[in-house]
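pinging the channel bc i need a second pair of eyes. not urgent but kinda urgent?? the chain im working w is below, pasted from the shared doc
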Amino acid sequence: MKKQSQWILLAATSSVSFMSTLDASIVNIAIPHISRQLGVPMNEAEWVVSVYLVLICTLLIFFGRLSDQIGRIPIFQTGTLVFLAGSLLCGLSNSLAILLIARGVQALGSSMVMATNFGIITEIFPTSQHGRALGINSSFVQVGNIAGPGLGGLILGLANWHWIFFVNLPIGVIAFLFGHHIFKHEPVTFKNVQVDWRGYATFATLIPAFFIAIYWGQAAGFNHLGVISLLTLAAVLLGLFIWIEQHVAEPLIQLRIFNNRGFSLGIISAMLVYMVGFFNNVIMPFYLQETLALSAGIAGIILMAVPLLNIFSAPIGGIISDHIGAERISFYALFIFFIPELIFIFIQPSWSLIWLVFGLAMFGVANGAFQNNPMIMGNAGKEFQGIAGAIAALSRNLGMTFGLSLATSLLYFGIGIKAHHRMTAYPKLHPDWFIFGMHFSYVFALGLIGIAIGLMSWLLWSRKKAV
């Protein structure tokens, strides 16, 4: 493939990856608008976010395994069209039921895209350029993850919530046409496809059971009998899934891929970083719009400090990773996270906005420099590139979902400590309670970064010891 075509395809695949990741986070800031316009309670409107994330997590592994058998490009291109159809339907929705169905269609297309984009990139670029190419893709994916509140605020400042979904259409169509023109058109056959249906059925039951328990626990408390029962069911299904995968001829996931310490620790550390990123998505819109009384448009502009710096740091981090290794640059990047997290732990409304913008900008620098995709894909064998990409995307979405749940739970738990009773909404009469809950939450976010540093330290130490 010509060098120019490689970079065009990278731009096309990364653009679709950006949109599919963006749509997991951009809706957060529009939930109040959706709730009011559709006339539904806030807790029901929040399912617009949850349904998308849970379905993606449920479908990713299936399409990752399928892509290793029939090819990644057909699944990616089909997924792009399905995602665009879902985006159009979301934008046209006039009821919560239709919007949730449309989000399901979006999730189907998004899972097909996310499961294949990393594998496509490692296939079309030589090994010596994997860090740079995956670093650029990482900038798109990570910007999509963290730009949601900022971009959503800008859109809501100019138009209604429907345009959050309509903006996907021109970008997606252009990306699809570029791909259709340049990608190899190879015949697709399903004759030799083998799917571990028992394993997948177990996995597809495990994921919703676990997340329903998490969301239910947030509302009813984690000592509720129903929540405990679902968590127990999820644990049993996880054990059953592992047992099935070890005893079938063609497993959904070749578990030996996790024997590579770099791959396994890369997956875990990436999940932790995405969890921390979602703390900003949950907490910062409240802080800016409710505590500081800024408009959605101004809040969006401030939050754009994260993706703007991420755009520059991710490709640079990718280039450096080609020279010193993705693990080492990621290890250094984790220490940069301490700067924004400490600012967010101590910031007060009386502080200048410059401190907040600086903290968000440094978060963007750290997030971009953390080279999780090159680290994960570089530690997976060539025969595992499809499923490895799906697992990487799954870890990202699990991290986002865990982050959403953990940040929300910690925030309201912290507010409840100051209120001396359980809280599930912003305390409009006591903004100081929210500040306490915010600081309380970010202490835990800092702890997650500390865990990631410990894991990466162990990995680098074991590599050095093995030499």
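so The CA atoms of residues 259 and 281 lie 34 Å apart. and The domain at 3-195+252-466 is CATH 1.20.1250.20 (Growth Hormone; Chain: A;). — does that match what u expected or am i reading it wrong
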